[in-house]
Design goal:
- This is SDR family oxidoreductase.
- Pfam families: adh_short.
- InterPro entries: NAD(P)-bd_dom_sf (IPR036291), Sc_DH/Rdtase_CS (IPR020904), SDR_fam (IPR002347), SDR_oxidoreductase (IPR051911).
- With 289 residues, the chain is an alpha/beta fold.
- It has 9 helices and 7 strands, in the order E-H-E-H-E-H-E-H-E-H-E-H-H-H-E-H.
- Helix 1 packs across helix 8, helix 3 runs parallel beside helix 4 and helix 4 packs parallel to helix 5.
- It binds NADP nicotinamide-adenine-dinucleotide phosphate (NAP).
Length: 289
């Protein structure tokens, strides 16, 4: 039985992941922000599910944009379970639109949740994982960080940063017996669209109206014809949690076959490049690919 904390578990991939993990017999802590307010309903549903099915699923308050909240959530897990085996850095949101339309403050909010959120939660958890000599950080990334398309530049940049953190953690934590991996997902229908934050600058948006409008039309056409099942992503996260230590790949791509194959080729080439570059720098022994 694994003890797992999943951030952003009110909806989407996070919600599916906590429900699946708990039903499979794991001890699961569902991180939700604002349990007393915006997520009161989701918290009550999860608590109700735990009681109805007699599964180990507990809701913990966790706003990833606040370090003290991350610290308290990890302390709650350790107090209750005595250890923490898996941290799923899933909480995230998207600021879609042309890069120029966003202010630096808006960009900061995009990075604060998607990048620094994972940093805060991991920083709180890692002393425990290192002490245990075991455990895994699982980040939820995006295929848009591997192949950049227009109108999601801030989001793609945040997920690229998350990918770099994941790889650095992987190298740095391996000597402690701790793993770090990322799941790069293609677009799936969750609440991410409803929660999207558009740029406030209407004038700059207007300048891009034609291109952005056409892009959104084309992008949503395929998705509405054949909606993908977000369970593909939560199943991949669950499979990583249940994999034996040392057998987890650095990057897992969850996407329709042509996209997945193309990005897996890119990932293999990037790993080859890392081998060459690290050997040339004389630091191969410090890398875990
Ligand atoms: N769906 C996709 O197409 C897709 C593709 C690739 C990657 N992803 C990534 O997958 C992850 C999950 O997204 P999703 O698609 O499942 O969307 P979602 O249904 O909107 O779920 C996002 C979750 O993140 C939470 N969250 C946002 N800000 C938070 C904060 N400051 N503290 C704690 N929780 C916070 C949300 O909580 P609230 O309910 O309180 O807002 C919600 O539970 C995200 O990192 C997203 O970038 C999604």
């Amino acid at each position: 039985m694994t003890v797992a904390l999943v951030t952003g578990a009110s909806t989407g991939f996070g919600r599916l992941t906590v429900e699946t993990l708990a039903r499979r017999g794991h001890q699961v802590f569902a991180g939700l922000r604002d349990i007393g307010g915006r997520n009161a309903k989701a918290a009550a549903e999860l608590t109700g599910l735990a009681a109805a099915e007699a599964i180990e699923l507990r809701v913990v308050e966790l706003d990833v944009s606040v370090q003290s909240s991350a610290d308290r959530a990890i302390a709650t897990v350790i107090d209750a379970a005595g250890r923490i085996d898996a941290v799923v850095n899933n909480a995230g949101l998207i600021f879609p639109g042309p890069v120029e339309a966003f202010t630096a403050e808006e960009a900061q909010r995009q990075f604060d949740v998607n990048v620094l959120g994972a940093l805060r939660v991991s920083r709180a958890a890692l002393p425990h994982l290192r002490r245990q000599g075991a455990g895994v950080l699982i980040q939820v990334g995006s295929t848009s960080s591997r192949v950049t398309i227009p109108y999601s530049g801030l989001y793609a940049a945040s997920k690229a940063a998350l990918g770099s953190l994941t790889e650095a953690w992987r190298h740095e934590l391996a000597p402690f017996g701790v793993e770090s991996v990322i799941v790069d997902a293609a677009p799936y229908p969750t609440s991410i669209g409803a929660n999207a934050v558009m740029p406030a600058d209407a004038a700059r948006m207007e300048a891009y109206a034609e291109g952005f409008g056409g892009f959104v039309t084309e992008l949503t056409k395929l998705q509405s014809e054949a909606p993908a099942d977000p369970r593909a992503v939560s199943d991949a996260i669950v499979a990583l949690i249940e994999s034996p230590a040392g057998a987890r790949p650095a990057r897992t791509v969850v996407a329709p076959a042509p996209q997945r194959d193309a990005i897996e080729s890119l990932n293999a080439a990037a790993a080859d490049a890392a081998r060459v570059v690290s050997a040339d720098m004389g630091v191969s022994a410090f890398l875990t690919l």
